[in-house]
Design a protein that fits this description.
The protein has about 550 residues and is of the alpha/beta class. The chain has 22 helices and 13 strands. Bound molecules: 6-O-phosphono-beta-D-fructofuranose.
Length: about 550
């Protein structure tokens, strides 16, 4: 690992100088200079076509960025990741999510133990459970088959399976209907339970730690609901399963031992979809399709480890992200899937990128002094075009975008898909090249309206296309972003696998709870907190 503060690296400084020179060059100029730019600044690999020509980059930028990655020791860090070394330094453990989709028959010794048999064993147990659910053979306490599944989890124990179940809905014939409950707001569980019958409902309690407040509160609600219908704790064995790295806590809660599906502390929550956290997805699409998803992940893992830098997709996305955030100073990044099925991808990537790389201290504990992960947000196209794209085109914050689309639709209807793709490409063109004075005049736009109807252009975007959204494509797409995040963490010299920033709020909430309930005085809190609590209490006492 290169421990040097990044801005001290000559390769970093070279990029700063380069950015200063390139900042004044417009995308129009860059395209005019090189008629083949669109084809040249594009990469085909692992079933993806990635067009990055609408980034403010030149060949020199690329060379300088590869040099930076090398100077930061990316190759060595990648070897350490895949050797199972403790790359998560602040928590002193490896990050082995990639082992979950290693479908070889090989061994993987970590701290003297081959971890692969445990991974394969859980996967087989998941397949057996998913098979029973899909065949209507998982019977509830009353003897009725389970038809509904409620996945209870939050963060990494929710966003992955929730996103993937939506993404692969097309492939989910025959599985149980699945709801997701994550929020502490009782309204979400209440609304879900109103539509369900206990006799045919199975709860999946997913929590790596099995200590998460939201999940335990919702789990307690589910248990009360079940026991309200079956006043017999034995019923829980047929209506509750747990997915956790803390099996003892799940058993203590009341989950039957045979219903506990384990994963391990070396799988970060936001990387956990290919573990037992993917159980609802496997129930939805079946074990075979789930395996296709894993094969997709595995293919991208191989690609990331073996492709040379100039042909390496995750590295390319990582470097573009670093370039845009650090050297061009873009504070935000939008993910725009032109796919209804991928509508939850931005929320999933929000956790993956912002929880991993939203850090201000480097691995040596120093304030970084440069931008790290930008604010990531987004939503599906074309819906976004009628909502927030106004800001992308004419707003003051500069936002880089990932447009994601597919050549073919799984649900073709008339020319809808071509319309969708026309919109995708049109948006990237409008963002990049805008609409200047000449076009406004040519289009006879009244002079008084021209300031409002001009588009500045030079809005950065990368377009990621694939054939169609299959389980394999989804696996490759998620792994693409996972390795992007890892590579960026190395370049930014931050620990991408911890998340200490979520702790403080949890501690304070625990302290405030008795005060909100009126069981303890709030007089020792700051004046804002005191008044907020007073206001809440006044409302509760009416
Ligand atoms: O609070 C953040 C977090 O720890 C995430 O990193 C994690 O994915 C989520 O909470 C849920 O944690 P668990 O799976 O332990 O319930």
């Amino acid at each position: 690992m290169n421990r040097q503060s990044r801005p001290m690296l000559p390769e970093w400084q070279a990029l700063e100088r380069h950015a200063a020179a390139l900042r004044s060059r417009s995308l129009r100029e860059l395209f005019a200079e090189d008629p083949e730019r669109g084809g040249r600044l594009a990469l085909r690999a692992e079933g993806f076509y990635v067009d990055y020509s609408k980034n403010r980059v030149t060949d020199e930028t690329r060379v300088l960025l590869f040099r930076l990655a090398a100077a930061c020791g990316l190759a060595g860090e990648t070897r350490r990741l895949f050797a199972g070394e403790a790359v998560n330094e602040t928590e002193g453990r490896p990050a082995l999510h990639w082992a979950l989709r290693d479908l070889s028959s090989g061994a993987l010794a970590i701290a003297g133990e081959d971890i692969m048999p445990r991974i394969r064993d859980v996967r087989e147990r998941m397949a057996a459970a998913a098979g029973r659910l899909r065949a209507g053979q998982w019977l509830g306490h009353s003897g009725r088959p389970i038809r509904r599944l409620v996945h209870v989890g939050i963060g990494g124990s929710d966003l992955g399976p929730r996103m993937a179940c939506a993404a692969l809905r097309f492939f989910s014939q025959g599985g149980p209907r699945i709801d997701f409950v994550s929020n502490l707001d009782p309204g979400q569980m209440g609304e879900t339970l109103r539509r369900l019958a206990p006799e045919e409902t199975l709860f999946v309690l997913a929590s790596k730690t099995f200590t998460t407040q939201e999940t335990l509160a919702n789990a307690a609600c589910a248990r009360d609901w079940l026991l309200g219908r079956f006043p017999d704790r034995a019923a829980l064995a047929r209506h509750v399963v747990a997915v956790t790295a803390n099996p003892q806590a799940a058993r203590d809660w009341g989950v039957a031992a045979e219903n506990v599906f384990e994963f391990w502390d070396w799988v970060g929550g936001r990387f956990s979809l290919p573990s037992a956290v993917g159980l609802p997805l496997m129930a939805a699409i079946g074990p075979e399709r789930f395996l296709e998803l894993l094969r997709g992940y595995e293919a991208m893992d191989r690609h990331f480890r073996s492709a040379p830098p100039e042909a390496n997709l995750p590295l390319l996305l990582a470097l573009l992200g670093v370039w845009n955030a650090v050297f061009l100073g873009l504070p935000a990044h939008a993910v725009l899937p032109y796919s209804h099925a991928l509508r939850l991808l931005p929320a999933f990537l929000q956790q993956l990128e912002m929880e991993s790389n939203g850090k201000g201290v480097d691995r040596q504990g120093r304030a970084v002094g440069y931008a790290t992960a930008p604010v990531l947000w987004g939503g599906p196209g074309t819906d976004g075009q009628h909502a927030f794209f106004q800001l992308l085109h004419q707003g003051t914050p500069a936002v880089s975008c990932d447009f994601i689309g597919f050549r073919r639709s799984l649900d073709p209807f008339a020319d809808h898909h071509e319309q969708l793709l026309a919109n995708l490409v049109a948006q990237t063109q409008a963002l990049a090249f805008g609409r200047g004075r000449e076009e406004l005049a040519r289009d006879h736009v009244p002079v008084a309206q021209r300031p409002f109807r001009a588009f500045p252009g030079d809005r950065i975007s990368t377009t990621i296309l694939a054939d169609e959204l299959t389980p394999g494509t989804l696996g490759r797409l998620i792994a693409l972003y996972e390795h992007k995040v890892f590579a960026q963490g190395v370049i930014w010299n931050i620990d991408s696998f911890d998340q200490w920033g979520v702790e403080l709020g949890k501690t304070i909430a625990a302290r405030l709870l008795p005060k909100i309930k009126g069981e303890a005085p709030a007089s020792d809190e700051d004046s804002s907190t005191r008044e907020l609590i007073r206001y809440v209490r006044d409302g509760q006492e009416k």
